[in-house]
Amino acid sequence: MPRRRDEYEDEEAEQDEEEEYDAADGDDDDYDDGGKTKRKRGRSDFIDDYAEEEDEEEDDDEEYGGGGGGGGGGGRGGKRNRRTAADFFDEEAAVDSDEEEDEEEGEDDFIDTGADIPDEDDRRIHRRPLLPREDDQDDVEEIERRIAERYANKSNNVEYDEEATNVEQQALLPSVRDPKLWMVKCAIGREREVAVCLMQKCIDRGSELQIRSVIALDHLKNYIYIEADKEAHVREAIKGMRNIYPSRIMLVPIKEMTDVLSVESKAIDISRDTWVRMKIGTYKGDLAKVVDVDNVRQRATVKLIPRIDLQALANKLEGREVPKKKAFTPPARFMNIDEARELHIRVERRRDQSSGDYFEKIEGMLFKDGFLYKNVSLKSLSTQNVQPTFDELEKFRPPGQSGDGDMSSLFANRKKGHFMKGDRVIVIKGDIRNLKGWVEKVEEDTVHIKPNDKDLPETLTVSDKELCKYFEPGNHVKVVSGATEGATGMVVSVEGHVVNIVSDTTKEVLRVFADNVVESSEVTSGVTRIGDYELHDLVLLDDNSFGVIIRVESEALQVLKGVPERPDVALVRLREIKYKIDKKIYAKDRKQDIISVKDVVKILEGSCRGKQGPVEHIYKGILFIYDRHHLEHAGFICVKSESCLMVGGSRANGDRNGNALTSRFGQLRPPPRAPQSPMRTPRGGPMNFGGRHGGGRGGRGGRGHDALLGASVKIRLGSYKGCKGRVVEVKVDRSYISDNVNVSTPFRETSRYGMGSETPMHPSRTPLHPYMTPMRDSGVTPIHDGMRTPMRDRAWNPYTPMSPPRDNWEDANPGSWGTSPQYQPGSPRSRPYEAPTPGSGYTPSVNYNDAGTPRDSGSAYANASSPYLPSTPGGQPPMTPSSAYLPGTPGGQPMTPGSGGLDMMSPVVGADNEGPWLLPDILVNVRRSGDDSAVGVIREVLSDGSCRVALGSSGNGEAMTVLPSEIEIVAPRKAEKIKIMGGAHRGSTGKLIGIDGTDGIVKVDDTLDVKILDMVILAKLVQT
Amino acid sequence: MSAEEEENAAELKIPDEFLKAKCLMNSEVALILEHKYEQLQQMGDDPMNQVSQVFEKSLQYVKRFSRYKNPDAVRQVREYPSLCVLGNLCPETVEEAIAMVPSIKTRGRAHDDEAIEKMLNDLSLIKKFE
Amino acid sequence: MFFHIVLERNMQLHPRHFGRDLRDKLVAKLMKDVEGTCSGRHGFIVAITGIESVGKGLIRDGTGFVTFPVKYQCVVFRPFKGEILEAVVTMVNKMGFFAEAGPVQIFVSNHLIPDDMEFQTGDMPNYTTSDGSVKIQKDSEVRLKIIGTRVDATEIFCIGTIKDDFLGVISDPGATS
């Protein structure tokens, strides 16, 4: 064991001193042993050492070590030599600091010491080292006298009583009248030496040396402290000395004086049998048990599980080249001496002189029972919050020894208030061992328990050390400390102090100490979050794959990837996650019903066939379904949306908005048409080239309820500037508006439509068609507008990406315009256009238009809708539909193939998707072919998507069943009551408090929130 | 949680509302659920897609663990002053029955061993002849 | 254990459903809302078997919704601590096995499996007695005793034991096949 063996200048002088005060100490004997064990830190050490010195006197070297309970650990051999004046100073400092600390820490320690140590002796011990000793003739009285002299005017300091209160302690703090502390620079490593020299000087010179004391601190290199009244005294004292630099003498501010002599409080916590962790080196983070503490040298002997690569060691010993692989740390395992011998490593067996235990010594390392005994600096130990895990303790148990012994040491770490009233406990020690009961009352260290046994009606008082918490299988508990802190679960079995718990989330068995567990009905999973990601979140990973977090570990996450074919679980680190996917996305199930999050679906194919559960996440057409009966992957199943079918809700969910009820009805009835609103689909998706909300807008325009509708307008801006026309349809194009069109002015678009409708204008415009046509491509535009919209977009937004169909359009357009049969003057304005509208096909929302209706029937439409699938919003090239549809087109239209294709689609929309987005109690226009439109109120949405509509603006009239395609929603005006038809608030009612372009500002009734919603999804509410 | 509040079916320490409610044998539940299932079937469509998972699981379970398949037999058992647990588990010996349902002895229903045995015999007879 | 029990629920209905078929609407909504749910108190509500009464509706201020107290009979499944029931094994692992009794999942930890049964890995992991006479594997039917229940909003999870008299395997699919 490496020990400091500083050479001191005058070894003999020290010897003398020791003898001197040993002799003087005769009367101190009584408390050597009694006081030793209880005391800690500086003071006790000091006393211990002191006692040892006496032993030293009387006994021979061998036995000396045995006397010291709290002193240094194994390898005391060097101690005697070490016992020098230097130590002496050290101890003195420690003692002083102890006093200082008492002030800080309250009275506990203080009184403690007071009880153990007779006042007089204590004081004397403290003081004695301060004395300058000339010779061994001084007797105790003489010393006392001198001291009294020295501190005569600071009587406080000398005479204070052990029972001193805090206030009195305060008075001990240095004041201006006290001697000052001077910090003097000296050679590094020579601090102690300098101090000793000064002491010697003091001894030699006696009282003429006017300094009071010298302090060398272990932790402070390069400086010593000298206590003196004046700087001149200091200078005088150090004059002519080696290793000390008089040029640097600094005054320590009064306030900091106490700090100089305070011992680092951290060291206090370390005592024998404490669990600590290593802070540095190979054993960093390892659990260790303190075997011995030497507070003086700030070192401790700890017991560790060795991490030694025997082979490497053997190589080294034999002088072979050791490959330097620093990267790896040998695993912790017990030292096997036989194995070491086999590798021809020399193993010495020697007896420790202090404890009498035998150690195996290999290469300077000490081993016992397989453990490594290591002497380390206290600073390299971490003592705060050391919570050994079960596994660690299990390992620490030497082979073949039962675990109970170690448990008791754990109890020492218990916090106050460990037991609470109502806890179920079991007695683990003493006569009433194994008695179970409930905690009735907790006092300081005792616990009153009410025994479980009916024959013992009285409460018993038991020390808390003798109690352990007790649980029964079936209890639901929460882990409150340790590695699995926070987890909850049910107790399946109890083995002594260890309970086995089935975790609520992972369904795995955890082994925890009964002590670390409290009964709780709470259900948590322990750690459920790292950074921004939480258990069950859907995340996008680095490689653009995505998945659901199914388990959170300390530094990584388990992610069930979105691969439907087979479950693929990846362990992912935080940095590999790009972001959390938190979108409201929808997908379609096998029947094309729209699935949204929380809908309950059933899996129809694949390995998980037959399972069902609520959809937790939807992404790219992949559903993540949570089936609590699915035991793998935390209950998550990843499937394609098409492999699923929506089923009646087994989960009462509020999020399915107003739709829920209707959908349920739908399911109860024979034709379970999904009454899902197409509007809910993210219209903003891929199709929106022209404007953010192009699709939706179109729908609205189609309804023809804009105030501008039918008005004669003049185009104020753009290439049509100056043209006049009647507004046939209003389509608000967001981007357009943002392109400087004032909302209050008629939009160009509007006017444009005008062109179409107004015969006179028509001719003039025709040439323009080509320009406009491109717009159709934008796909964005609602169906109604179909014809026009596309054009607009193009025309106005030259940026719109060119899609293949567009070309067609350009060619076709003129034709379509001219030829379109619907373009009859007699028909309702909007209609004529709609019929031909090729563009409309793109946007499902359009469907409402009557225009579509006539044609819709085609099965082709079904397909058409698919592009709109919510699940694939981004990916869908807007153009694709057109080509796809082409083949199907029944055509009949005089349009070019391209346009024809588009045409087809428009009906499509109408067929399937509209129904859902109608809701009862809204005002609509009913238009049946040939009839003029009539206003009515939807009374009920039937499962096939058609509606019962009561005619009349307040719904008093005749009721009729109307196809959704014959219905147009009446757009609300400002200050009217509205119903929200789509989005998260679908089904909610509110008041339209303002209109901003295409957005309506709505105050939602339920929440009183003000929302900005697309006007398209707002419908006028008719209250009944 | 103290011992008093803890439920324990073996000692019939269950919430009052269940003590008052009629407990059902698996066989009875099977009858009820199957009936309901048929009703759904008549409404067209695959009822399996409409019922909740709880329903489905329960139906599977009670079908699997029904001791009496014949509705009449179920009715007969029901009439018998026995506990439906016994009807579910069909213990063979008195000892087993008591282990399964300790309360048949303790609840003062005047079930001594003989009575229990007789009951078990009757139950097995019903089963035999269903 | 299954029970036939009468429960009450306040149903909120939007006025749009008022009319001749109001009751049907209520029932349909009730079924949708209630069937398949689980509460700690009553367990799983498996099926509604009848409506006892529909109370007088109460209009809620502000919303127009009307609240009807509905009493209905239903079949519930509620596991109790101490209850003995039969269940089908769904998964076996080294920590124990999971079994299902209707909608309830029950975990039997290996601590609660008789000590003479040992875990065997393989395609069909199982617990087998040393003499091989008794085997618990997937699809086995076991009789077990519930020793603990945990209830949350949507499920009840139980832990059970087969370490007691007359508990254990009642049918072994391996033996028959």
Automatic annotation (TrEMBL), chain A:
InterPro entries: KOW, KOW_Spt5_1, KOW_Spt5_2, KOW_Spt5_3, KOW_Spt5_4, KOW_Spt5_6_plant, KOW_Spt5_7, KOWx_Spt5. Residues 269-296, 418-445, 470-497, 594-621, 706-733, 971-998 form the KOW domain. Keywords: Activator, Nucleus, Phosphoprotein, Repeat, Repressor, Transcription, Transcription regulation. Residues 65-76, 687-701 have a biased composition (Gly residues). Residues 786-795 have a biased composition (Basic and acidic residues). Residues 8-32, 47-64, 88-111 have a biased composition (Acidic residues). Residues 1-127, 655-704, 748-769, 786-903 are annotated as: Disordered. Residues 816-827, 840-850, 860-869 have a biased composition (Polar residues). Residues 178-264 form the NusG-like N-terminal domain. CDD domains: KOW_Spt5_1, KOW_Spt5_2, KOW_Spt5_3, KOW_Spt5_4, KOW_Spt5_6, NGN_Euk. Its main location: nucleus. GO terms for cellular component: DSIF complex; ribosome. Coiled coil: none annotated. It is found in: Nucleus. GO terms for molecular function: mRNA binding; structural constituent of ribosome. GO terms for biological process: regulation of DNA-templated transcription elongation; regulation of transcription by RNA polymerase II; transcription elongation by RNA polymerase II; translation. Belongs to the SPT5 family. This is Transcription elongation factor SPT5.
UniProtKB/TrEMBL annotation, chain B:
One of its GO terms (molecular function) is nucleotide binding. It is found in: Nucleus. Pfam families: RNA_pol_Rpb4. The keyword Nucleus applies. GO terms for biological process: DNA-templated transcription initiation. InterPro entries: HRDC-like_sf, RNA_pol_Rpb4/RPC9_core, Rpb4-like, Rpb4/RPC9, Rpb4/RPC9_sf. Keywords: Nucleus. Residues 16-130 form the RNA polymerase Rpb4/RPC9 core domain. GO terms for cellular component: nucleus; RNA polymerase complex. Belongs to the eukaryotic RPB4 RNA polymerase subunit family. PANTHER family: DNA-DIRECTED RNA POLYMERASE II (PTHR21297). This is RNA polymerase Rpb4/RPC9 core domain-containing protein. It comes from Buddleja alternifolia.
TrEMBL record, chain C:
Coiled coil: none annotated. It comes from the Eukaryota. InterPro entries: NA-bd_OB-fold, RNA_pol_Rpb7-like_N_sf, Rpb7-like, Rpb7-like_N, S1_domain. It is found in: Nucleus. The keyword Zinc-finger does not apply. Residues 79-156 form the S1 motif domain. Keywords: DNA-directed RNA polymerase, Nucleus, Transcription. GO terms for cellular component: P-body; RNA polymerase II, core complex. Residues 8-64 form the RNA polymerase Rpb7-like N-terminal domain. One of its GO terms (biological process) is positive regulation of nuclear-transcribed mRNA poly(A) tail shortening. GO terms for molecular function: single-stranded DNA binding; single-stranded RNA binding; translation initiation factor binding. Belongs to the eukaryotic RPB7/RPC8 RNA polymerase subunit family. DNA-dependent RNA polymerase which catalyzes the transcription of DNA into RNA using the four ribonucleoside triphosphates as substrates. This is DNA-directed RNA polymerase subunit. It comes from Buddleja alternifolia.
